[in-house]
Design brief:
This protein has helices spanning 10-20, 60-76, 105-115, 148-158, 173-183, 226-237, 253-261; strands at residues 2-5, 23-26, 28-31, 37-40, 49-53, 81-86, 120-124, 141-145, 164-167, 187-189, 191-194, 200-203, 214-222, 242-250, 267-269. The model has no long low-confidence stretch (mean pLDDT 94). The protein is elongated, with a radius of gyration of 20 Å. The strands form four sheets. Strands 2-1-5-6-7-8 form a six-stranded parallel beta sheet, with helices on both faces. A five-stranded parallel beta sheet has the order 10-9-13-14-15, sandwiched between helices. Strands 3-4 form a two-stranded antiparallel sheet. It is 30% helix and 26% strand. It is of the alpha/beta class. The chain has seven helices and 15 strands. Helix 4 packs across helix 5 (173-183). The structure holds ribose-5-phosphate (R5P). The site of ribose-5-phosphate has 14 residues, from strand 13 and helix 6.
Length: 277
């Protein structure tokens, strides 16, 4: 097998190749003055199994086009099998026509990947809220890796075994409850109402005692940080000694910085979208 990293897949691609004992190459990329991509494989793919690594953030639109072009080309160049490794799957949150006329983007993104010729698809903690599993989106082998053990270990090591785990909204329930069980903490989620893209209203949780505790908010995604800050405000009012945030996907380093500036003690994320956090 050969691991080929697209632009956003370089950090994880190198590690993956090392872990598999596979050879490693990077897709050459240039951006034309008009914004179009010029891409080129630097190594022969004929007859090989190719793992194409691309995180679909930052720049989800460019990253997705780069990945789709790479899959199709790898097949044209004779790759025996193309396994896509996308540590972050973009557009998963738009899984329903919330308002008339809206685009349901998750199905279109998966369609593009699959129909470009991918033979298998691996991702980490895809935001599957109203969709039960990746098999709803893909008919090829599609694996959604979850990392509750890694998140729980980080919490136990850095915050302590008596950390209290909460979720900022119902959508975080799946990942949060599992992490809480592994940490040995009680668990509840806030109720969140998104008033607009940036305005969020939280209703306080009832079942978890936060007074005097080191509380950790666990979520799959931190994007603007608004969800975490809304929940943190309540937790502070409820008497939490400290509030930290642990997520799978931190969309931007700036969001992490914003959380730290606003009193979040620790911010920790996996490296599906590499950053200093
Ligand atoms: C919600 O669907 C997700 O689980 C996250 O809570 C949400 O995407 C976070 O967004 P933001 O950081 O912008 O509030």
């Amino acid at each position: 097998m050969i691991v080929v990293a697209c632009f956003n897949g370089r950090v994880i691609g190198k590690k993956l190749a090392l872990h598999l004992g596979a050879s490693y190459s990077e897709l050459w990329k240039e951006v034309f003055p008009d914004g179009e991509l010029h891409l080129k494989f630097k190594t022969a793919l004929k007859g090989k199994e190719v793992a194409l690594v691309q995180s679909l953030s930052p720049n989800p639109n460019d990253s997705l086009v780069e990945l789709v072009f790479a899959i199709k080309t790898a097949k044209e160049l004779g790759a025996k099998k193309v396994v896509v490794v996308a540590p972050y799957l973009c557009y998963a949150r738009q899984d329903k026509r919330f308002h008339g006329g809206e685009v349901v983007s998750n199905k279109i993104a998966s369609h593009l990947i699959q129909h470009a010729g991918a033979d298998a698809f691996y991702t980490v903690a895809a935001h599957l809220h109203r969709v039960d599993s990746l098999s709803t989106l893909f008919s090829i082998k599609a694996v959604n890796v979850s990392i509750p053990n890694e998140m729980a270990d980080w919490i136990k090591k850095n915050i302590g075994k008596d950390a209290v785990v909460v979720g900022p909204d119902i959508e975080s329930h799946r990942v949060g409850r599992e992490v809480a069980q592994l940490v040995g903490s009680g668990y509840d989620t806030f109720l969140k109402k998104r008033v607009s893209g940036s305005r969020i209203k939280h209703t306080a949780i009832a079942k978890v005692e936060c007074r005097g505790k080191n509380v950790v908010i666990v979520d799959d995604i931190i994007s603007t940080g608004g969800t975490i800050l809304g929940a943190a405000k309540h937790l502070k009012k409820m008497g939490a000694k400290s509030v930290s945030a642990v997520c799978v996907h931190l969309m931007t380093e700036a969001a992490g910085d914003k959380l730290k500036k606003n009193g979040i003690k620790y911010v920790a994320s996996s490296n599906t979208i590499p950053s200093k956090y």
